[in-house]
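DOMAIN: structural biology
WANTED: fold as tokens
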Amino acid sequence: MKSIREKDSKQRLVVFEEMGSGDYKIAGIEVYGKDIQIVKVVNIDSALPPIVDEPEEYISEDFEGDLVLNFLRHPDLSEYLVGLCNKKGVPVIASGRHLPGAICPFTCCGLGRKDGLGAYGRQFGLPEYKVEIEDGRIASLAVKRAASCGATFQVVREITGLKIEEAPTVISRQVQYLCLSDPSDFDPVSGKSALHYAGEVHKSALRRAIERAVKKNHGPR
């Protein structure tokens, strides 16, 4: 049986960022998210030294929430925040980072389905589409799970009406136009950039949706 909080309350989201580094994602969550409330945004807008010896001067322990999104760029602040979240028992997502104790997908649109991430985890992460096909073209495209920036939704108009053979390539290109990641910022481990990765996961999502729709259309009558 679900508790009153699980049934009646929105998931409380806390966001930490530097110089507005999470603003694009915050806007996407506010527009497209359901049953999620961003209860606090901590934006560190001052210049930071190469080494932060006292991170508690920038990050207070007084935040409360069900999930934390870490868009901090400074490694000392990120590590300190993750430690606080672990101490509080609050899951923290730090996309594009390599931080023990945090959930670290390659990008925000690379987050797989994981238990304990509530409404955010169900709605945001690796994109998922449902496609309807007519005469070999995309008749309709419904978003089942999306990138938190909102690009998954924003490309729907560009894809509807396209031939199913060309749609995956087009969606990859359109998502990359919308992505704010630096195309020259390649991850040294994977050799990939976040921008190209975003395009590829959307292409793969659309291909899977098309395959399911084709199979459905050609199934037993």
User: Anything to note?
Assistant: The two ends are 41 Å apart (CA to CA). Strands lie at 11-18, 36-44, 67-71, 92-93, 128-134, 137-145. The longest strand covers residues 36-44. Residues 1-7 have pLDDT under 50 and may be disordered.
